[in-house]
Amino acid sequence: MAVEAWVSAGDVAAKRSLADVAYERIRDRLLTLDIQPGGLLNDDELAKDLGVGRTPVREALKRLELDRLVVSYPRRGTFATRVEVTDLAFISEIRMQLEPLAASRAARVATASAREQLQKVMHAVEAFDASAASVVETLRLDASVHRGIYAAAANPHLEDVLIRYDNLATRIWCMVLDRLPDLSRHVREHLDLLRAVIDGDEAGAANLARIHVSGFEHAVREALFAA
User: Fold this and answer.
1) Are residues 65 and 170 in contact, defined by beta-carbon separation less than 8 angstroms?
2) Residue 147 exposure: Cα atoms within 13 Å on the Cβ side
3) How confident is the model at residue 182 (pLDDT cuts 50, 70, 90)?
4) Which residues are CB-neighbours of 42 under 8 A, at least 6 positions away?
5) What is the extent of the structural domain holding 162?
6) pLDDT band at 227, cuts 50/70/90?
């Protein structure tokens, strides 16, 4: 009985791991618009592409629906959610409140190891060549900055909400990425924010996070209206 229970637990862990892999890979394709907004997601095709079974894919799609990245309709299937320009204002409104909160909290409560990790992220930003990087590489670096600060804030509920809204903002960003005039400036402005968090400057970190979100919205709007 003990052996059977151990095998069962192992199977559950393996299944969860495959679902996590499927979730992350499908999520990345949705964020980079590799899966087009409004596009149909086919269980069988995704399972073949990812080299996993249909069950992990279905579990991943359920999580992605909670993230508002996909939507399911009875008898019609699961579709990537559309990217609406009007969503930018709603998303920015939430991020303008929560990003400064996370940054100031991270500056206040981050552990020594969390600050050390943010230091590594800062070095990566300093060495990053936006002109030579792919879209995926740029998005990964951007995500590493934000995820690092969210994690350093040590509030899992705040982290969960911010990751979801950062993902939604990323999809909008990808719509105009090739039209942004100075992507390297957007990337490098993370440096002052990271430095403020690492140095424990709560007010400075909050202010820089607010400026970053506001600048993001302004840049996206300019690119959209210039199109």
Assistant:
1) no
2) 11
3) low
4) 77
5) 85-226
6) low
Note whether residue 8 is domain-resident.
Answer: no
Do 104 and 140 lie in one domain? The reply is: yes
Q: What is the DSSP-derived secondary structure letter of residue 177?
A: G
The structure tokens listed for 174 are 């990808």
The per-residue pLDDT for 121 is: 96
**Closest by alpha carbon to 148, among 108, 183, 106, 191?**
106
Q: Which residue has the higher pLDDT, 204 or 8?
A: 204
Neighbouring C-beta atoms of residue 197, cutoff 10 Å:
32
- Provide the token pair at 3: 């052996």
Contacts of 202 (CB under 8 A, 6+ apart): 104, 105, 107, 108
Burial of 45 (0-12, 13-18, 19+ CB in 10 A): exposed
pLDDT digits (tens, 9 = 90+) for 30-65: 998 999 999 999 999 999 999 999 999 999 999 999
Same domain? 76 vs 90: no
pLDDT tens digits along 84-134: 878 899 999 999 999 999 999 999 999 999 999 999 999 999 999 877 888
77 pairs with which residues across the strands? 73
Amino acid at 204: G
**Residue 172 vs residues 82, 114, 166: alpha-carbon distances, Å:** 10, 29, 10
